Amino acid sequence: MPTQTALSTLTADSDRGRKATDLFRHAYNNAALDEERAQFLNENRAFPAELRRLIEEYSMPVKAPEGGRILVVRVPVNPGREWQEAINAAGPNTGSDWAVRKVGDQYPPQSGEPKEREIILVNFGKTIPDTQYALDWAKPYGLSPEPPRGVFAIGEHKPQLHRELKRSVVVVVSPVPCSFGDLRLVPGVWWNDAERSAFLYWFDNEWSDYYWFAFSRE
Question: Does the chain have fewer CB atoms within 10 Å around its N or its C terminus?
Fold first, then answer.
């Protein structure tokens, strides 16, 4: 089987990249910065991350919900990874007897080589009534619910995601349900300061504004 390569990406030197940098140059010129403010911009450590966030947000063919946000992450995902191994990498603080460890049979490994994937995270900026609300939002855009191994990969490869989002607590949810103890549940990864854990949550849970839902265009 041939090895699957990472997503192809453009650079600022490509035709489309030069168009974007021309737009930045035009906006910079119109800002009419004096030397002091120009230097402050150059030294502002928050500027590169905020600029990248804007590029990711405005390059997406998906519109963020009103009052919400979209974040695009790219992480290597192994669709065939063993369930417990994926949980341990994503959430090292996950308890050995937690329910999320007992539903791996409902998410069997899939064929395919590990590869970098683009995962779209959506936050609604408010409390929503249940997971179906997020699925209904994604449907018109042709987005698919991201399976748990993709969410676990985010936990593994982006351990500082909550700090990137400037939140003390962040949860990323895979809206692909399973059953456990007669309940309909969805898996997710929880960031809280220095801890990361994998959990199962009620599908019909009310989700507050620190929950993000994972989708893809595959």
Answer: N
